[in-house]
Write a structure and sequence with these properties.
disordered N terminus; alpha/beta; Spore Coat Polysaccharide Biosynthesis Protein SpsA, Chain A; 324 residues; 2 domains; seven-stranded mixed sheet; 10 helices
C-alpha cells in the first residue's frame, strides 16, 4: 500500500473493525479533532475484517474526505490478530496506537499516552478500563480473573491486558508478530522481544452506542489456552529439550527405580522363604512401567522438538537494539 506522505507521521492509529458502519463517521470526527487540536501529523488505518455491512463503503468515503484515513479490507473474517498484524505492517508513525471502532475507546486519551511514550520513554502504554461499562456478570468478573492469571504467568503487572486502546513505540510493532489469537497478549510479545518498559494508564470507557459485541464467553477459555501456548513458546521455544528431556528423564528414573525395587524385594523374599506377592499382582509395578514408558516418550518428544527447533529459519533471529 502506498504511504500518504513521504515523511513519517507523528502518529499511526490502527482500528480493526467488523460491522461497525454506524460508529465509523463519529470515530473519524473524534480522531480528527484530537489530532488537529494537538497539531500532529497522522494516519488512521482502518482494517475491515470481513464486514458484511457497509463498513468498507464508509471507509472509502472517509478516505475521499481526508486522505489521512486509509483502509485495508479482508475478503473474509480472519480475526483481530490478523487485522492488527496488517495494520502494524503498514504503520509508519513514530508512535502507533490501537483502538476499537465501537466508540468505547476515547481518542481524548491519545495526547497523554503519546506524551508517556515520547517524553517518559515507555515502550508500551496499555489502557486500563478502570470503570468498565460492560455487563458485570459476563464481562467484568471473567475479565478480572483472566487478567489476574495473565499477570501471574507473564510477570507484567497490567490490570487490563486485553484493553484495545494501547500506544507503542514504532520499534515495538515492527519487531513482534501477532498471529492466531495473540492480540490479547501484545504486551507479553513485546516483553519477549526485549521491550520491557511497559506501563498502563487508566482510560475512560464508554458504553457501546451501536451494534453489539463481537466477542462471547468463549474468548476467556481461548485466551487462557493462548496464554499457555505463548508462555511455553517464549520459555521453551528454542530449548524444548530442557522441558521434555528433564521431565522424561525424571519419570524414566523414578519408574525404573520403582520397578527394580519391586523385583529385588520379591527375589529377596523368595530367597528367604518369606511369603511374597507376585510382581504382576502389584499395581505399583504397572504404574512404574507406565512412568518408564511415558518418560521415554517425553524424552523422544523433546529430542524431535529440538531437531525441529534447530532446523527453524528463525533459530538465530534476535532483536538488536543498537550497533556502532
Amino acid at each position: 500500500m502506498d504511504q500518504t506522505n513521504s515523511n513519517s507521521p507523528d502518529i499511526s492509529i490502527i482500528v480493526p473493525l467488523l460491522n461497525e458502519a454506524e460508529s465509523l463517521p463519529e470515530l473519524a470526527r473524534w480522531i480528527t479533532r484530537v489530532m488537529e487540536e494537538n497539531g500532529w501529523s497522522y494516519e488512521v488505518i482502518m482494517v475491515d475484517d470481513g464486514s458484511t455491512d457497509s463498513s468498507w463503503s464508509v471507509i472509502k468515503g472517509l478516505h475521499e474526505e481526508n486522505p489521512a484515513f486509509r483502509g485495508i479490507a479482508f475478503r473474509r473474517n480472519y480475526g483481530k490478530s490478523a487485522a492488527l498484524y496488517c495494520g502494524f505492517k503498514e504503520a509508519s508513525g513514530q508512535v502507533v496506537f490501537t483502538m476499537d471502532a465501537d466508540l468505547q475507546d476515547s481518542p481524548d486519551e491519545i495526547p497523554e499516552m503519546y506524551r508517556m511514550v515520547t517524553e517518559e520513554g515507555w515502550d508500551v502504554v496499555s489502557g486500563w478500563k478502570q470503570h468498565r461499562q460492560d455487563n458485570k456478570l459476563t464481562k467484568n468478573l471473567p475479565s478480572k480473573l483472566y487478567n489476574a492469571t495473565a499477570r501471574h504467568i507473564t510477570g507484567i503487572k497490567l490490570h487490563d491486558m486485553n484493553c484495545g486502546l494501547k500506544a507503542y513505540r514504532k520499534d515495538v510493532v515492527k519487531n513482534i508478530e501477532v498471529y492466531g489469537e495473540m492480540h490479547r497478549y501484545i504486551p507479553y510479545l513485546a516483553k519477549n522481544a526485549g521491550f520491557d518498559k511497559i506501563t498502563e494508564k487508566p482510560v475512560h470507557h464508554q458504553k457501546r452506542l451501536y451494534g453489539k459485541s463481537k466477542f462471547g464467553m468463549e474468548r476467556f477459555v481461548n485466551g487462557f489456552l493462548d496464554l499457555l501456548s505463548l508462555w511455553f513458546l517464549s520459555t521453551f521455544g528454542k530449548k524444548p529439550m530442557h522441558l521434555f528431556g528433564f521431565g522424561g528423564l525424571l519419570m524414566f528414573l523414578v519408574g525404573g527405580v520403582m520397578a527394580i525395587w519391586i523385583i529385588v524385594a520379591k527375589l529377596i523374599h523368595q530367597a528367604q522363604g518369606v511369603r511374597f506377592r507376585a510382581v504382576t499382582d502389584q499395581p505399583l509395578f504397572y504404574l512404574a512401567l507406565v512412568a518408564v514408558i511415558l518418560g521415554a516418550m517425553f524424552f523422544l518428544a523433546g529430542f524431535v522438538c529440538e531437531l525441529v527447533s534447530r532446523s527453524s529459519s528463525e533459530r538465530n533471529s534476535y532483536n538488536i537494539k543498537e550497533e556502532l
